[in-house]
Structure formats: C-alpha cells, structure tokens
Design goal:
By secondary structure, this protein is α+β, with helices and mostly antiparallel strands. The chain contains 19 helices and 16 strands. Among the domains are: 102 residues, ATP-grasp fold, B domain (D-amino Acid Aminotransferase, Chain A, domain 1), CATH 3.30.470.20; 37 residues, no CATH class; 69 residues, Glucose Oxidase, domain 1, CATH 3.50.30.
Length: 482
C-alpha cells in the first residue's frame, strides 16, 4: 500500500492526473486533470482505492495516517475557498462522492451539502442572505444522508415502501399538496424549516438514531458510506453485468460544494459532448434552474435542453428555455470547455456542471457511455476529424455495441401514421414492446419465464438495475434523456 492515501486538487494544481485512474478512480483522476487544464473545478481531495481495499481487509477500519492526511487536505480547501469547514460564521460545505476506476453511474453513493448543522446554518444564512437556499440545502442533506449513511451503509433493510427516503419524500409531497403546489421550488423558507423539523422526527423513528449535528461526523459518515456502497447490492449487480472485478474498490472524492439552488441565476446540468444515442457531433444535454445535480440525474424534475438545436417540437411549442437562451455567456463558456475536453481526451465526454450565481464550475468529466449506433458514428467522425487513427476507430466499438446495431427500431413511416397514446423524451433510438410491469423484481421474474416486459417506473432508480437489465424497454413518468 502506498504511503500517500489522500491526493489534493484545486487552485489550478493537483497531486494526481488522468493516468492515475487505478489509484484515484475515474472521477478523482479526471478532476485532477481538469484542474491542471485550467478548467474551473471546486477544490477537494481524493481518498485512494487502496484505502477501500484496506477498509475491507481490516474490518472496516482506516489506515492510521488517514485522519491526519484528511485534516491537512481540509485545511488546504479552507485556504482556497476562504471558508472553514465546521465554522459557525464562515462555513465550508462539501460533497462526498464515489469514484471507481471504471464508470459505474448511479451505482454507488453521493452525499451533498455535508457540514450543515445547527452550528453552521446561522452563519451560512448571514453570509448568503438567502435562508430559503440554506434550508433547501439542509433538507436535501437530510434526505441523502439518512438514506445513504444511516440506512443503507448501516445495513438496515426496511419493508417495501418503508425506506427512510420514501418516508421523507412522502412528507415533502404532503407539505406541497397541503400548500397547493407541485414543485419543490414553490416551497418558501418557512415551509422548508417546518419540513426539516419533521424530517428529524421521521429519521429518528425510521433508523433508530438522531440525525448527526456535527460536521466532522457527517463527513466521515459519508466516506464510510461510499466505501460500503462498493459492496452494495446494486453495485455488485452492475459489476456482474459489466464484468468489473470486485477487488478494484472505489475512491472517495470530498469536494467543496458549489450550489445550483441559490436562485434563478443558479443551475445544474449534465451533458455529452456528442449525442450519446445517435453519435451526432452536437452538444447534447439537460439543465435545471435553481436545482442541485440529483434533480437532473434522478429525474425529480423534467429538465430543459442545453441548447436550441436539441429542442423537441413540443419543447419549442411550450416555450421551454435552453441554457443557450437563458444564460448565453455561461453557455458560450461551457461550449469552450466542451471543445477543450474533446480535444484533450480524444473521446466523447459525459460532463456534470453547476452554475452558482452566474459562475460556471465543472464537477465531472468521463468518457461517455453510448449506443452501438452512436459508437459507430462517433468512431467514423473522429477518424475524419483526425482525433483518432484507424486502429483506435476499430477498437472504439465493443462486440456488444455491434450487436446493438441489429436491434429493432420503430419504422419511421409507421410512426407517422400510428395512433399515439402519449409522447415522451427518447433516451435511446431503439423500439420495444412487451407486458408492462411496475417493479424491478417483477421484470426479473417475468423475464425468467420467457416473457418480454417493459419496466414502468415513476422515475429511474439505480436500485432497479437488475430489472432494467431484464426488461426490453423502460418507461418513466418523470425525468429527461440523460
């Protein structure tokens, strides 16, 4: 095991680089690389995959030097952000995220807004003069932390429909319904303060202990939960499907928070530098104003397209604003970063970004997953553009992606004459038919009996990975295309 367990990035410098994915995981290595490229990345640090291996080999304990290394990295973050983690007057908040060497989107855990406590809340309100934002961030922390750290990582297995996350979502829905509103953003500061107090009662009853009110306890709880999630049910299922070895482990990334939920000049989004469904060389993605990242990737709200070019006819008719139209200067900066990343990595990138009060920050880049059709088109286009050579173009297509090219699609002529029951946003180019099932378990069970099924869910959920694999197609009531 290496003597160094923590690698810092920030301020245009980094201890790591893109080639260190085995040690820093894909996310940590690419955050370091983006920082070195001069791309705006909030400062933070990566705890290595070797610590994850140590954690499992030593009864879920940490190396003796880890705490001191983490404390030193937090001091560096404090200096760069001009805040202090856990401070009552000028608090730093952090995110705690996973990061395996091979991308496992949605399969492991993330906790945002870590460091919000009864001690730090007044200071953040005084600093931002935005109490609604602070209590919105606090309720988000409670929802994620109680789910990820206090329930899943603790090994609790509640009955179907009784998880702490579902109980908190039901309470939030009750509050919105009582007020006669539909969106989270319609709740005012008093609604959110009341909701946070209700959440504390629900959490204590559901998991048997109070929500932690100490910043360091929250951070270490998040770190342990990320390591524990490496051997969580959905991560193990995904590794079996994708052929990822169990012994690789995951890194943990602790990063200064930037906030997309500070008002109408703040936003969050995910994007692909090319269309992951078709391979078209067009910037493709989705964004939400006054939101945090989970709102986009979890389908909590239906996002808007990043640019005018990728709007659907329905979005045009409804007057939906793209990021290009709503924040043209920020969009122009994002396009510049998009071009820079493709030129540097010689591949299509999947990126996450946050805009805090008009300032753009990049939170992730990785080689984006794509359909077989997209893989073929991208490989040929990048060969023509001299981003890759002929040998690399051939290697860009996996055997499974070649198989995808033979999968059925809807007949464009039949689409024009068919009677439509409903319209939605397409996440892929294929077509499917089958029996509608409403749980992942039912999808697996019916598929084993030889039946073709469509998994119908309110929104996509990483817990459904086995059902998603078994289904011919997936239909959700909420969410976008990314």
């Amino acid at each position: 095991m290496s003597a160094k367990n923590v690698y810092f990035f920030g301020g245009g410098k980094a201890d790591g680089e893109a080639s260190m994915k085995n040690l820093l995981g894909g996310k940590g290595a690419n955050l370091a690389e983006m920082g070195k490229l001069g791309i705006p990345v909030p400062p933070g640090f990566t705890i290595t995959t070797e610590v994850c291996t140590y954690y499992y080999e030593n009864k879920r304990t940490y190396p003796a030097t880890l705490k001191a290394e983490v404390n030193k990295a937090i001091e560096q973050m404090n200096k760069l952000t001009k805040t202090v983690y856990g401070d009552a007057k000028n608090p730093l908040l952090v995110s705690v995220r996973s990061g395996a060497r091979s991308s496992m989107p949605g399969m492991m855990e993330t906790v945002l807004n870590v460091g919000l406590t009864s001690k730090t809340i007044p200071g953040l309100i005084a600093k931002t003069k935005n109490p609604r934002f602070v209590y919105d961030a606090y309720r988000r922390l409670m929802m994620m932390y109680s789910d990820v750290v206090m329930e899943k990582a603790a090994g609790l297995e509640p009955a179907e429909g009784q998880s702490v996350r579902i109980q908190l979502e039901k309470e939030m829905h009750r509050v919105k319904e009582a007020k006669g509103v539909t969106l989270d953003t319609d709740l005012d500061v008093e609604d959110l303060k009341t909701l946070c107090e209700s959440f504390k009662v629900i959490i204590k009853k559901a998991v048997g202990k109070p929500f932690p009110d100490d910043a360091m306890e929250q951070m270490w709880g998040g770190v342990g939960a990320v390591f524990s999630s490496w051997n969580g049910k959905r991560a193990c299922s995904y590794r079996r499907i994708e052929g990822i070895p169990d012994e690789w482990g995951t890194a943990v990334n602790v990063q200064a928070m930037v906030f997309g939920n500070m008002g109408d000049n703040s936003a969050t989004g995910v994007a692909f530098t090319r269309n992951p469904a078709t391979g078209e060389n067009a910037f493709f993605g989705e964004w939400l104003v006054n939101a945090q990242g989970e709102d986009v990737v979890a389908g909590i709200r239906t996002p808007n397209p990043v640019n005018k070019q990728t709007k659907t006819e329905e979005q045009k008719a409804a007057g939906v604003l793209s990021l290009e139209e709503a924040m043209p200067d920020t969009y122009k900066q994002l396009i510049g970063i998009r071009n820079n990343l493709e030129k540097h990595y010689h591949d299509m990138q999947d990126i996450e970004f946050t805009i805090q009060e008009g300032i753009l920050y990049m939170l992730q880049t990785r080689s984006g997953k794509r359909t077989g059709t997209a893989a073929l088109n991208m490989a040929m286009d990048m060969l023509k553009e001299k981003l890759i050579d002929a040998e690399e173009a051939v290697m860009r297509l996996k055997p499974t992606q070649l198989d995808e090219l033979l999968h059925p699609i809807l007949d464009p002529k039949a689409e024009k004459t068919a009677t439509l029951l409903a319209k939605g946003l397409p996440a892929g180019p294929g077509g499917a038919c089958g029996h509608a099932v409403f749980t992942a378990a039912a999808a697996v069970e019916w598929a084993k009996k030889g039946k073709t099924v469509i998994l119908v869910r309110e929104e996509t959920n990483p817990e459904d990975v086995e059902g998603m694999r078994a289904a011919e197609g997936i239909l959700t009531a909420r969410g976008g295309m990314t």
